[in-house]
Amino acid sequence: MPRKSASTPSSSPAAKTINLALQGGGAHGAFAWGVLDRLLEDGRLAFEGISGTSAGSMNAVVLAHGMLTGGRDGARAALENFWHAVSQAGERYSLVRVSPWDRLKGNHWNNDDSLSFQAFKAMTNAYSPYQLNPTNFNPLRNILNEQIDFNALNCYEGQKLFLSATNVQSGNVRIFQNPEITVDVVMASACLPFMYQAVEIGGHTYWDGGYMGNPALFPLFYRTDARDVLIVHINPIVRQGTPTTPHEIEDRVNEISFNSALIKELRAVAFVQKLIGDGWLKDEYRDQLKYVLIHSLRADDALADLSAASKLCTDWSFLQTLRDRGREATGVWLKRHFDDVGKRQTVDLHAQFLDSGSEMRPLMTIPHGKPKAPVKKRLAAKIPAKSTAKKRATVTKATESKKKST
Asked: Who wins on pLDDT, 381 or 313?
């Protein structure tokens, strides 16, 4: 297939160009589907790079392939087709079933107490996927193979993709880019080790990328030109109250764990911004760093009523609800912040991630107007003049004695 250029329908001359960072989160990835659907419908933002993890990786490859085959409308249709196929596969193969009694409760997707979910947890806690699923069957692999031409996708230059997976042996994050993206790469990015066997690629095995980058931001800094990064969160960062039940505690631990790598990267971004903004860099190095503008589409409120168990719920009505919540949140964000894109950052990184009581204070402050002397000069100033002179005389005498002896 002929190589596509950046002039394909993925962008238009009037659109502002940004990068996307898509978190993972199982079925909750349908919230990001709604975000992408609304952005594509709006048409005022083009995407240069997309970094994805787990469900975020699936959304990324489906969107890119849809853009390749049919532009924005093609991407919207591809995302809906993908999530509808996920729902149909869930009806056939999911071990976590929603009973008629659960449906009567209303929010049947929060089925932490259901018999099927408790049985699923008991099995995955007692047995590994190598025992429970020796053939390593995963319906998502079939869906991706049916809907995406990975060879064509890897030749597509209109969309840069960066998919994260965790190297089981080293514990490091591995970023896969367009020329090397296969169905195995996407499955590795979404491989939860208590559910699926590790995915082997190039002699290494990989687990879900969320452990080390959910999603990874740094590829967007080094491999793209766009300064603006819109992070589409799935796991709530802030949740009010203290969890007390086993389900609540487990859910909150899950959220904190899968946000930790991202928060560390955001702290690093804030540090680089300070280096550039406060003039701590020499002029010859200033242009080597990019002042990134971070934007955030948070799911804290939109998904606050959902538990971790609902990440396994693939009911079509539930996925549509998540999509609609994502669309609504995106509409609000566009109204508030579209004009800021390309001009200013809309996330206060210091307030949200640095002013938490963990920041390190300097050991001593230096009065303004009094530059700190070099270390050697400060040490010399503490040594009395007589002591210094005596030391020099001793060294000189020893040197002369050595010359005479030779």
From this structure: 313
